[in-house]
Design brief:
The chain contains no helices and 10 strands. It has about 110 residues and is mainly β. The strands form 2 sheets. Strands 2-10-9-4-5-6 form a 6-stranded mixed sheet, with no helix packed on it.
Amino acid sequence: QVRLVESGGGLVQPGGSLTLSCAASGFTFSVYGMSWYRQAPEKERELVATIANLSGRTNYADSVKDRFTISRDNAKNTVYLQMNKLKPEDTAVYYCTRTGRDYWGQGTQVTVSS
């Protein structure tokens, strides 16, 4: 069965960095684009970043452009989100999903606070 398992969240001070990982299993990872979303309390879930399956082309929300980097390792069936210069407004539960958004992980909490 399809599984997506996020990890790497935690508490970090403003200006700090975190790297999230999403381990995928149960499907052919390399043929799917992958995305990171986030949801802050009382807000809609929003798209953070996307990476294509073969080309590795990436797209980012304006709010994270030049601070976050999405990448993938098809040999490890894993997608990453490197987050730098974190701000309090980045606080949210971060989720990964595949093209079609038919499966989601359980999410990992990121809290940016001093």
